[in-house]
Specification:
homodimer, 164 residues, mainly alpha, Ferritin, elongated
């Protein structure tokens, strides 16, 4: 019997597993970044986002359930690359006033990756008729966008000014 | 003599080299994606963005000049990871109706990476007093955002509808 052609349903599942892996990596990276931040506002933003990320992981588990699949990650090369770049900056700029701006930039690259993935998944969930899943994905999308806006504000104001 | 402490200027240069490398990789990936797209609108969007990307590379070279540095790239693990994921999707979904949505999602991940980097570089250029460089970076930022919006529109309307 020929294997059935892959569909948007398969693409949805693959991408869900990709962001599930990514969120778990982010969950591990954020406390390290919070610890190294010189600015208390930045440390606070990282800690707050860590707590939100825990909720995002739970929401993804709910989406897996709605979809009728087991929640399991799939190595996401994109987030591995983004976080590796962040680590390199953290090492190269350790102890300098440019560390905070560097971590801010790394965190914004992470946020934008998530924004693209949640935007895509929400659209696909709608197209697949999964209204409740689309709502959950949209909630997380809104939070990722808000975090990115907070980081942009920090980048323009306090944190970078010190390093100039 | 002790090595001078790294500053925002060094961070700016490192990140400029990172996005310069990334743009050149994107320049190579887009024609391949355009060739595989089933939807003429999507192929057209990829081709148009390829042409824009050439201009983005030239603008970066101008920014390097304003900054007084030689234009040279630095391996960007993030874009390598993002493009590798895209390639994997293109292989796994080759010949199916889900290929276009998959390539759209990959392209949006690329756009969002660029949006985060150009946003960061523009802010830093302003803080370093490089007004002309900030303007050039802002021009590209606006074009990346516009491309992302075009891709979002395509994703919501035609392209994915076929694959559902």
């Amino acid at each position: 019997m020929a294997k059935a052609e892959k569909t948007l349903t398969d693409l949805f599942e693959t991408t869900l597993r990709d962001i599930y892996f990514a969120e778990k990596q982010i969950l591990r990276a954020l406390p390290k970044m919070a610890k190294k931040a010189k600015s208390p506002e930045l440390a606070n933003a990282f800690e707050k986002h860590r707590d939100e990320t825990e909720v995002h992981v739970e929401r993804l588990e709910q989406v897996f359930e709605m979809f009728g699949a087991t929640a399991r990650g799939k190595t996401c090369d994109a987030i591995v690359g983004i976080l590796d770049e962040g680590k390199e900056i953290m090492e190269d700029f350790a102890g300098t006033d440019a560390l905070d701006p560097g971590m801010l930039a790394a965190a914004q690259a992470v946020e934008h990756y998530e924004i693209s993935r949640y935007g895509t998944l929400r659209t696909w969930a709608e197209q697949l008729g999964m209204k409740d899943a689309a709502k959950l994905l949209d909630l997380t999308l809104a939070e990722e966008k808000k975090t990115d806006a907070t980081l942009s504000q920090l980048a323009s104001m306090k944190v970078n000014a010190k390093a100039a």
